[in-house]
């Protein structure tokens, strides 16, 4: 029996559970402050605080595949928390093997586990592996190529799940209202960088109540605009077509 689960629904459930647990565990005096105005999650000085992050190649795994790759009873061990609450880079890595035994020796696993395993690459990674990975939004893996994952305890053959992750922006409801967008809309990311400024279209809005404002682009995109040396980043709704049709 198979079940298709939308990744955005999964992340929304995880984040909502984390926020609820944090609220329930807050000190009573803090909870009782009905007159205080809480700043929206991730906001600074009364406005959204945009973060743009390079999402390097990584892998998401099911509980079953974690045990196959790292040994019976194994679980993902957090090594570094990610900016989005409840998500982390694990201590574990896997080797990825593509056609003709081309390989990437150490690909980081991200947690928590998922209902299906998925490998996210940049374009140059897919060339190195010899895999024609399509650009897809996370979770949309139907009809995508597979690969072999190798861990210290075993290997897993993925029949599908290798993608080039499409650029997207995480945001909460307050962020969405600020920009005048909704979940599923497209935005533009404008990066100002010396001699290589760039505007990225088609940045998918992924909104839920517990997200912080963060754009994810891949390694190739980050290098193309020299993101590490950028002097400014700006997020805006995609411009609407003019009445003339151009």
Word description of this protein:
It is found in: Bacterial microcompartment. Its main location: other. Keywords: Acyltransferase, Bacterial microcompartment, Metal-binding, Transferase, Zinc. This is Phosphate propanoyltransferase. The structure is a single chain. With 246 residues, the chain is α/β, with parallel strands linked by helices. The protein has two domains: 54-165, no CATH class; 168-237, Barwin-like endoglucanases (Beta Barrel). The chain contains six helices and 15 strands. The chain has helices at 7-24, 28-31, 63-70, 123-129, 173-179, 219-224, and strands at 51-55, 58-60, 78-81, 88-97, 103-111, 118-121, 135-136, 147-150, 155-158, 162-165, 168-171, 186-192, 198-207, 214-218, 232-237. The strands form two sheets. Strands 2, 3, 4, 5, 6, 7, 8, 9 and 10 form a nine-stranded mixed sheet that branches. The radius of gyration is 20 Å and the shape is globular.
Describe this structure in a few short sentences:
It is found in: Bacterial microcompartment. This protein is 20% helix and 33% strand. The protein contains six helices and 15 strands.
Overall spatial form: globular
State which percent range the strand residues make up. Answer: 25-35%
Average of per-residue pLDDT values = 88
Number of strands: 15
- Gyration radius (Cα, Å) is 20 Å
From the helix content, strand content and strand pairing, which structural class follows?
alpha/beta
Q: Which bin fits the share of residues in helices?
A: 10-25%
Keywords: Acyltransferase, Bacterial microcompartment, Metal-binding, Transferase, Zinc
Family: Belongs to the PduL family.
Pfam family, one: PTAC
Protein name: Phosphate propanoyltransferase
């Amino acid at each position: 029996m198979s079940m298709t689960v939308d990744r955005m629904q999964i992340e929304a459930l995880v984040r909502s559970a984390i926020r609820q647990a944090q609220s329930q565990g807050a000190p009573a005096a803090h909870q009782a402050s009905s007159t205080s105005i809480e700043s929206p999650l991730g906001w600074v000085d009364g406005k959204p605080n945009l973060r743009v992050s390079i999402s390097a190649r990584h892998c998401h795994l099911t509980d079953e595949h974690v045990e196959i790759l790292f040994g019976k009873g194994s679980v993902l061990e957090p090594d570094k928390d990610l900016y989005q609450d409840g998500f982390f880079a694990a201590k574990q890595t896997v080797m990825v093997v593509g056609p003709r035994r081309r390989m990437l020796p150490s690909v980081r696993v991200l947690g928590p586990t998922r209902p299906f395993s998925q490998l996210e690459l940049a374009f140059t990674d897919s060339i190195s592996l010899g895999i024609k990975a399509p650009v897809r939004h996370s979770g949309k893996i139907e009809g995508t190529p597979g690969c072999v994952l190798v861990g210290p305890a075993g290997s897993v053959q993925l029949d599908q799940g290798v993608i080039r992750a499409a650029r997207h922006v995480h945001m909460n409801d307050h962020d969405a209202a600020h920009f005048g967008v909704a979940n599923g809309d497209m935005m533009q990311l404008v990066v100002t960088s010396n001699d290589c400024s760039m505007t990225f279209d088609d940045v998918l809005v992924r909104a839920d109540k517990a997200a912080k404002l963060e754009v994810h682009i891949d390694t190739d995109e980050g290098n193309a605009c020299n993101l590490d040396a950028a002097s400014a980043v700006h997020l805006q709704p995609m411009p609407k077509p003019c009445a003339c049709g151009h």
